[in-house]
Amino acid sequence: MDRSLTGLRVLDLSRVLAGPWATQNLADLGAEVIKVERPGLGDDTRAWGPPFVKDADGRDTFDSTYFVSANRGKKSVTIDFSNPEGQEIIRALAAECDILVENFRTGTLARYGLDHASLAQVNPRLIYCSITGFGQDGPYAGLPGYDFVLQGMSGLMDMTGNPDDQPGGGPMKVGIAIGDILTGTFATSAILAAVEQRHRTGRGQHIDMSLLDCVVSLTSYQALNYLIGDRMPRRLGNAHPNIVPYQVFRCAEGNLILAIGNQSQYEKFCNAIGRGDLVSDPRFATGAGRIENRDDLIPQLESEMMKRTMLEWIDFLEPHGVPCGPIYRMDQVFEDPQVKHRQMKVSVPHSTGGDIPNVASPYRLSDSPVRYDHAAPTLGQHTDDVLGRVLNYDAAALKALRDRSVL
């Protein structure tokens, strides 16, 4: 069965995480993704271990688990495009591709004649997606962009973490490179929008994706609390600025997430735990009142939550329609019955022999489902296949290019 993007070919000049995440999404959906890497070195993240993927004999390979997390389903081709011959190969591949994704610093590829303006002359239908820290223009356009720095600049870190007057208080980054993942996901959407536009116009276009833009957009309702309500976001730990009670509570054993999102749920919760007085109390009778009087309400709930264990609370509250849940360690995530049912852990064939585990794509399409044909490629695994099939290079031409260190 064809997948949704079968027939689209992507030239992937990106590395590390944001760009590779976007192109992995495209590969999952069926596009042919040709990942161009430096001969002998490859994507920086291949070396970001341990841990490393093990071969069929249990020995470490040269590929980190970080690398395989973002490069599933791609074909690896090694080309040195700092070499003029390598640049010609990239131009020839671009002429045969629908989409190009790159995340070099602004202006870098123009030095090689591989920028959008140059390649649009080679292939006017090419959809060219540039991913940078700060975008293609503005006072910071030439600066490198790092997820950690951009989490700070966007305001995300200032609203994440415990208050300054609590133990461990202070700004805190998210536990994954959320800016990279988010930008890669936004880039996927933008690329598919450009594909749809090309159906109507026959032309490709340039997509300018900025990590800073994407992480600023992530601040969403917190930003609007400030822009409209003139309320500066403050760190609340695991609490919510606009909903109370919506946070983590310590139990007799373990910790519980209580996610009460509306008045009905609040009333069900209070009545279930025998605290109807917290509904009738005028301080807590409305959502706005609970926000204003958070410091009076939460200590009363904290004492109530210590009366049962986390598992006892979940068993008790769920039948009452009160949203709640546990905080899992990673080993518990993949043992959860729902996670198992949704098959979020998949085994994917790897070229070194055997299968390796991957986290499944969240895309669920009824008529064109995601398939997991192969894991992240080894360095240069598909060079001969791609250049032979797409550009008609024969064995002698490939050998000559290798002899000149172009491949």
From TrEMBL:
Gene3D superfamilies reported for this sequence: Crotonobetainyl-coa:carnitine coa-transferase, domain 1 (3.40.50.10540), formyl-coa transferase, domain 3 (3.30.1540.10)
InterPro entries per the UniProt record, alphabetical: CoA-transferase_III_domain (IPR050483), CoA-Trfase_fam_III (IPR003673), CoA-Trfase_III_dom3_sf (IPR044855), CoA-Trfase_III_dom_1_sf (IPR023606)
GO terms, molecular function: CoA-transferase activity
Xref: Pfam families: CoA_transf_3 (PF02515)
Keyword Transferase: yes
Stated name of the protein: CoA transferase
Keywords recorded for this protein, A-Z: Transferase
Keyword Transferase applies: yes
Annotated source species: Pseudooceanicola pacificus
